[in-house]
TrEMBL record:
Residues 60-105 form the DUF1508 domain. It holds the Pfam family DUF1508. This is DUF1508 domain-containing protein. InterPro entries: DUF1508 (IPR010879), YegP-like_sf (IPR036913).
Amino acid sequence: MASFVISKRFSGDYKFEFTSRKGKTIFTSNAYELRMDCESAAEYIRTVLESCSYVKFKTSKGKFFFRVVVDNEVVATSRKYSTELMVEKGIAEIVKYGSKAEILDFSNNNFVFED
């Protein structure tokens, strides 16, 4: 099952990643100062993924990626893909499984196993 994974950046800000059923990151959100803002943004984006825009780009090195646009605002950027077909498959996975994805919060870094 696909999921939204909330975590902390090295800067201390929060982000969420949409991961595929196989655990591969498809896109990463912008930074959020507060965890609850990040969580509410993930929840909102989960509800509008099927109707938002996906703008495709090509880097100067020939890699492909897309940005997720909601209400004329870029909310996330995808990972880099080697072909345009892979970009299409990534977007198709988002549209198909995004609304059913669960939200997982790993921002506390509380590990079960001690060193």
